[in-house]
Specification:
- By secondary structure, this protein is an alpha/beta fold.
- It folds into four domains: about 160 residues, Beta-Lactamase, CATH 3.30.450; about 80 residues, no CATH class; about 200 residues, Glycogen Phosphorylase B (Rossmann fold, 3-Layer(aba) Sandwich), CATH 3.40.50; about 200 residues, Glycogen Phosphorylase B (Rossmann fold), CATH 3.40.50.2000.
- About 50% of the residues lie in helices and about 15% in strands.
- The chain has 23 helices and 23 strands.
- Strands 10-11-9-6-12-13-14-17-16-15 form a ten-stranded mixed β-sheet, sandwiched between helices. The protein has a six-stranded parallel β-sheet with strand order 20-19-18-21-22-23, with helices on both faces. The protein has a five-stranded antiparallel β-sheet with strand order 2-1-5-4-3.
- α6 runs parallel beside α23.
- The protein starts with a helix and ends with a helix.
- It binds 6-O-phosphono-alpha-D-glucopyranose (G6P).
- The site of 6-O-phosphono-alpha-D-glucopyranose (G6P) has 10 residues, from α7.
- InterPro entries: Glyco_trans_20.
Length: about 750
């Protein structure tokens, strides 16, 4: 309707102008026709004169002129001739029909006939006057004045006018119709183009044809400029000096995301409720880098966290909707627990996620195992979490943060049910190269599932690049490498690196910590470590990707190569039990225990072990005290997305002491170059690094630690979440503009207003 009115606004003036032009043109047309008729009448007059000349010569024989009078009277019965006058060669009016004007002389008539406007009114009708010489054999005998009736010309002129007006009106209607059709078509074309442009497809023809080829270069240029601007903006944001903390993240959520609902989905829950002694229920924080990073963000976002309820007493503390407020005693956000049957957990979590995807992505020389039944369970559980997201969503466009390799199919499943949701997926582990990834029998499905995300984040650009190359290899998708955008089946996914981090301790938290000396004393007493010993620590889950075995070999080599450390060095390894149902993990643990025992046998004595293996779960405060007690922290992952242990160690050392030995295969190595970077497979190199750390002068320790601390303080987890959510907000804005344009276009087409 709106388009129609718009077109009327244009068409009405057009019709008015056309009719006006017609009226202006009519007098000109009249004059022209009159002139043509005058010429015709002149010729007709000559014809009449010559055909009458014989009859006139005969009639002139009658001296009284009666014959001539009769002849003229007969002739004027012709409706085209009104009057006739006969003038002598001397200009005397000798005979005239009764209709000839009484007061008109021959001279008057001659003058009139010779003039430009030879018309006059006779008895209320217009006539045209012509004069013709009549000659006989003897020569000129007189002049014939003929007065022709012009009324038929006027009648014709009136007809012509009518035809002309009808023709112009018809023309106007045709022009109007053509204009309307062209306007409709081009409006649709533009709307389609604009929508495509805003969707990011631009006017560039998608795979399979369509689009307007002639506009391709323009559209490409336009989109590329827009993306450049966005990239610049994002770079500006991420390089910005502004400090990120919980308050700034909250402000971002309030302003840029206008308080939109945030839903986090992960397999591991942030707190587990377990049965304690007697009837008590205790709360435990699991050993998980994901939980370490996402929990503080969730406190700031006050959203809903959906996770697998895996604690022994989890069901006892939830309400009837399976929800529990967290963190305990504060209720900053709520956890919605999803229950899995043992069969589901076996297939989805132990099977596909941890025997398939985990080794597939880590390339740590453990073969991935892919079973059809595990894949089925993985798909079914992903669907159950998608249902939970839909159930928890308060609007049709929540911001959903999907976490990790347990949920590769979830983004597309959510997208199908909540097409307007903003889905940020973060892959916490590495992404392998396309060849390694290609061994997964369901590689296409995994990629398609992840491409349901609005934004897909990795810790490093390298992993993002591997993902894009895998898409390139196995799917028919359009990839804009320059802007890291993958378009698949009309949807775009922005692939970006967001290095994860930890929440930097607040001054109050730092003030509440025991001093490093106290921590050292306490640890020494607890484990019986002599006070003159130097202490190295490792804090990991009992996982083959963490390089614990390689680390032990390096400790053994250190004691061989640098015997001065024998009897003066202790290595404390916290190894939280993990995925122990799996044979690979049980065998790994047994192997570690055997190697530790061998080293202790070689270089220690009962009660004076060199390697102290602590295979229990440790709460974050215990781990923090261990970091503060240590001289060296060993992080020797064989492959790690980021690794947050090294960042936690740095954050705990407010005394600026201690040395970090860090694997170059952990994502964190790119951010923390002041650590002693090592290749964990190279035992000699790691042994040398440990020695170097042990003898490092205090000044150098301080300098390195101060730099490391300032990096981690700035690139904290609020910046990680803030950057992702800022990108999400930008994306949502773009989507909203696009929707508005689309709505406008549809209204234009259907004629609705609003
Ligand atoms: C890694 C994964 C996390 C996982 C954690 C602990 O950090 O990226 O998703 O939570 O390991 O593993 P678990 O299987 O015990 O949750």
């Amino acid at each position: 309707m709106r388009t129609f009115r718009l077109q009327l606004r244009f068409l009405l003036p057009l019709v008015v102008v056309l009719v006006g032009a017609a009226y202006l043109a009519l007098p000109i047309v009249d004059q022209l026709t009159l002139r043509w008729f005058a010429r015709d009448l002149g010729l007709r007059g000559s014809l009449v004169a010559s055909s009458l000349s014989e009859s006139i010569s005969d009639a002139l024989q009658d001296p009284k002129g009666r014959k001539l009078q009769q002849l003229f009277n007969r002739v004027v019965e012709d409706e085209r001739l009104v009057a006739i006058g006969w003038c002598s060669p001397l200009g005397e009016l000798l005979v005239r029909t009764p209709t000839f004007p009484r007061d008109m002389s021959c001279a008057d008539a001659e003058r009139l006939a010779a003039g430009a406007d030879a018309n006059l009114l006779v008895r209320g009708g217009r006539v045209h006057v012509t004069a013709h010489e009549v000659t006989a054999e003897s020569g000129p005998v007189g002049r014939l004045i003929l007065m022709h009736d012009l009324s038929f010309i006027e009648r014709r002129s009136l007809d012509t006018r009518r035809y002309l007006i009808a023709m112009i009106a018809g023309l106007g209607v045709i022009i109007a119709l053509v204009t309307m059709i062209v306007a409709q078509l081009s409006w649709r074309g533009w709307m389609k183009g604009t929508r495509a442009l805003l969707r990011g497809e631009g006017l560039v023809r998608p795979l399979g044809g369509g689009g307007s080829p002639e506009l391709e270069p323009l559209a490409m240029e336009l989109r590329s400029r827009l993306r450049d601007l966005e990239d610049e903006y994002r770079r500006g944001q991420s390089n910005g000096d502004a400090h990120w903390d919980a308050q700034r993240l909250q402000a971002l959520l309030r302003t840029q995301l206008r308080g939109d609902q945030v839903i986090v989905v992960s397999n591991r829950e942030p707190y587990l409720h377990e049965h304690g002694e007697g009837d008590t229920v205790i709360v435990r924080r699991p050993a998980s880098g994901l939980v370490t990073a996402v929990e503080p963000v969730m406190r700031a976002c006050s959203g809903t966290w959906i996770a697998h309820g895996s604690g022994g007493a989890d069901r006892e503390v939830v309400d009837r909707h399976d929800r529990v407020p967290l963190p305990p005693g504060r209720s900053d956000y709520r956890l919605r627990r999803v229950w899995l049957t043992p069969k589901e957990e076996q297939g989805y979590y132990y099977g596909f996620a941890n025997e398939g995807m985990w080794p597939l992505c880590h390339v740590a020389h453990v073969r991935p195992v892919f079973r059809e039944s595990d894949w089925e369970a993985y798909r079914a559980v992903n669907q159950r979490f998608a249902d939970a997201v839909v159930a928890e969503a308060r609007s049709d466009d929540p911001v959903v943060l999907v976490q990790d390799y347990h949920f590769a199919l979830l983004p597309a499943m959510i997208r199908r049910r909540l097409p307007r949701a903003t889905i940020l997926t973060f892959w916490h582990i590495p992404w392998p190269n396309p060849e390694s990834f290609g061994i997964c029998p369901w590689r296409e499905e995994i990629l398609q599932g992840l491409l349901g995300s609005t934004i897909l984040g990795f810790h490093t650009r390298f992993h993002g690049k591997n993902f894009i190359e895998s898409v390139d290899r196995y799917l028919e998708a359009r990839i804009e490498h320059e802007h890291s955008v993958v378009s698949y089946r009309g949807e775009e996914t922005f692939v970006e690196a967001y290095p994860i981090s930890i929440a930097w301790p607040t001054p109050e938290e730092e003030a509440a910590k025991p001093s490093p000396a106290e921590c050292r004393r306490e640890l020494g007493e607890r484990l019986g470590i002599p006070s003159d010993h130097r202490i190295a620590v490792g804090v990991d889950r009992f996982d083959y990707t963490k390089g614990i075995l390689e680390r032990l070999h390096a400790v053994e080599r250190l004691l061989e190569k640098y015997p001065q450390w024998q009897g003066r060095f202790t290595f404390v390894q916290v190894a939280a039990p993990t995925r122990a149902v799996l044979e690979e993990y049980r065998a790994f643990r047994a192997r570690i225990e055997a190697v530790a025992a061998r080293i202790n046998e070689r270089f220690g004595a009962p009660g004076k072990e060199v390697v102290r293996l602590l295979p229990q779960h440790h709460e974050p405060d215990d781990v923090d005290r261990l970091y503060r007690a240590a001289d060296v922290c060993l992080v020797t992952s064989l492959h790690d997305g980021m690794n947050l242990v090294c960042k936690e160690f740095v954050a705990s050392r407010d005394d600026e002491r201690g040395v970090l030995v860090l694997s170059r295969f952990a994502g964190a190595a790119r951010e923390l170059p002041e650590a002693l970077i090592v290749n964990p497979y190279h035992v000699e190199e790691v042994a040398d690094a440990i020695h170097r750390a042990l003898v490092m002068p205090v000044a150098e320790q301080r300098e390195r630690m101060a730099n490391l601390r300032s990096s981690v303080r700035e690139d904290n987890v609020y910046r990680w979440a803030g950057r992702m959510l800022t990108d999400a907000a930008r994306w949502r804005l773009r989507e909203r503009v696009s929707e508005r344009v689309q709505r406008h276009g549809e209204q234009g087409r259907t004629g609705t207003t609003g």
